[in-house]
Amino acid sequence: MKNLIKEVKAIYDTFDASHDFQHIERVLQNAESILVAEPDADKEIVRIAVLLHDVSDKKYTDSKEAEERLLQSLDLSEEKIQHIREIIASVSFNGGNELPAKSLEAKIVRDADRLDAIGAVGIARTFAYGGAKGRKLYDDEEEARMAMTEEEYRSKNTSSVTHFYEKLLLLKDLMTTEKGKQMAEERHRFMVTFLEQLKNEREGKA
Hints:
Blueprint: H1 2-12, H2 21-37, H3 43-52, H4 65-72, H5 78-91, H6 104-115, H7 119-132, H8 150-155, H9 160-166, H10 178-202
Helix pairs in contact: 2-3, 2-6, 3-5, 3-6, 5-6, 6-10, 7-9, 7-10
């Protein structure tokens, strides 16, 4: 694990602050919290999947070379490696076109990652990514899309606030573990409060 952490950290340190190694550390922490409530899960598989889940993220690369290279470097059976591949593939939201999380481990990793996309950290990450991509903070003329293809989701440079309505505010109801659902509640409420305050400030009401 120490070698794997060193390898993935070198990759994540090349990404912007929304998907750097601190993101991975927080997702690991979320996963550990969920694992306490899910003792039947394979902890090793969960931890490795968390470490690898963004190394070949489509936002940063068109290749799965890093993911495959790191998977093949592990002393694991092909069955376990394939399990990790399937977990990683099921994590992404993809504009609502997500793959099903078929295993308990996939559900834990997905929830752990999505918890880091909401709440105070989620707000910070959204604007960090938006800034890195040159996106507007908000656009009052822009309408949130409730149905779109993965290509449409990734290709349109929508404002950061619009992203809350197209994805982040939907995540609470998409949690798959009981612990994940519990942890998402307060984070979701904080985002709603933030958006209300932001709107009031923009309109001169606060």
